[in-house]
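In the design runs reported in the main text, the only information available to the sequence generator was the tokenized backbone. The following block is the verbatim input for one such run; it is reproduced so that readers can re-run the procedure and compare outputs position by position.
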């Protein structure tokens, strides 16, 4: 680690003519997690946040029906509601039309994106679920 930058990933990543924004998503599956946002296509590449398991469709059309495919994964693998709220504050500042997770269906249409951000920001998960 000597000589390496420590801290939070942020800034941008340039790939040819494409410039992606680096979005911190700390503790949302891993301590140094980050996501990539394309401001041209308005897609947030969210890694494991938004992942769904067991569904057989590629795009979410009914958010309420989709929640059961996401809930267990997020409760187990996202660190805490506090981490989710911090991410939601950042995400709400972006002009997102699609959230593209690494696993499962994409959340397209702004209404589904907004519903997901609200859902994530209020989800007890990770350490919140450990009895005191």
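Verbatim output:
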């Amino acid at each position: 680690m000597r000589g390496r930058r420590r801290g939070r990933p942020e800034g941008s990543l340039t790939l040819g003519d494409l410039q992606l924004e680096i979005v911190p998503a700390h503790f949302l599956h891993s301590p140094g997690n980050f996501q990539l946002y394309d401001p041209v296509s308005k897609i947030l590449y969210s890694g494991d946040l938004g992942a769904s398991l067991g569904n057989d469709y590629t795009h979410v059309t009914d958010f309420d029906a989709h929640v059961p495919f996401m809930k267990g994964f997020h409760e187990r693998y996202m660190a805490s509601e506090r981490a989710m709220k911090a991410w939601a504050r950042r995400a709400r500042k972006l002009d997102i039309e699609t959230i593209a997770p690494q696993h499962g269906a994409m959340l397209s249409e702004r209404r589904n994106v907004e519903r997901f951000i609200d859902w994530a920001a209020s989800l007890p998960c990770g350490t919140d679920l450990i009895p005191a």
